[in-house]
Design goal:
With 192 residues, the chain is an all-alpha fold. The protein is 72% helix and 2% strand. It has one domain (3-184): Arp2/3 complex 21 kDa subunit ARPC3 (Orthogonal Bundle), CATH 1.10.1760. A hairpin with a 6-residue loop joins β1 (41-42) and β2 (49-50).
Length: 192
């Protein structure tokens, strides 16, 4: 088997072969929106306040589990490969290996979770529950990873990496829920 045939049979290419252009447009759009959300930041240490998590929730809600996850994988990989997409226009693998890495690694999983739950049951309560669970997944994953940089002090990491964001995250969940409710009346799910 030649190199070209081997690459063609790879699973990543198979995923892209099944994606239509309308899907690709929305996947890339949500990756870009996540980048924009990262730049709306209040610099705090060790983790900045950003709008990224709101976009992650919306990517899962509008694109579904697989495409929402793919949009966030593209976002994270873009930053890891050298595009300045993370908060404060930062980039590089060191952002993933630094204190905020746990949040970034959780983005694709949270988008998948939100999309999966909404695909299973499209009630308003499920949308709200999915968004709360997606946010908790990001915060708890981020805090657990952050604790590695705080000498294993999980309680300090939980406070400075999750609890401190509570009000901010309630606002982001409310905004994401409102945006979804408003737009989903006409577009319950973007092209799939």
């Amino acid at each position: 088997m030649s190199f070209k045939e081997n690459v063609k049979s790879s699973s990543i290419l198979k995923i892209f072969e099944t994606i239509r252009s309308s899907q690709l447009f929305w996947i890339l759009s949500f990756s870009f929106l996540t980048f924009l959300g990262a730049q709306v930041a209040v610099p705090t240490q060790p983790v900045p306040f950003t709008l990224q998590t709101m976009i992650v929730l919306l990517s899962g809600a509008f694109l579904g589990a697989s495409n929402g996850m793919l949009s966030q994988i593209i976002y994270v990989l873009s930053g890891a490969l050298g595009m300045p997409v993370f908060a404060g226009y930062t980039l590089g693998i060191d952002r993933l290996l630094g204190p905020t890495g746990g949040y970034l690694f959780a983005f694709p999983v949270a988008a998948f979770l939100v999309g999966y739950l909404i695909e299973k049951k499209k009630s308003i309560w499920m949308v709200l529950t999915a968004m709360v669970l997606g946010t908790l997944l990001i915060l708890l994953s981020g805090s657990a990873y952050l604790s590695l940089f705080l000498n294993g002090d999980y309680y300090n990491a939980l406070f400075s990496g999750a609890i401190i964001f509570s009000i901010w995250d309630v606002i982001k969940i409310s905004a994401a829920f409102s945006i979804y409710k408003l737009i989903s009346k006409k577009y319950p799910r973007l092209p799939n």
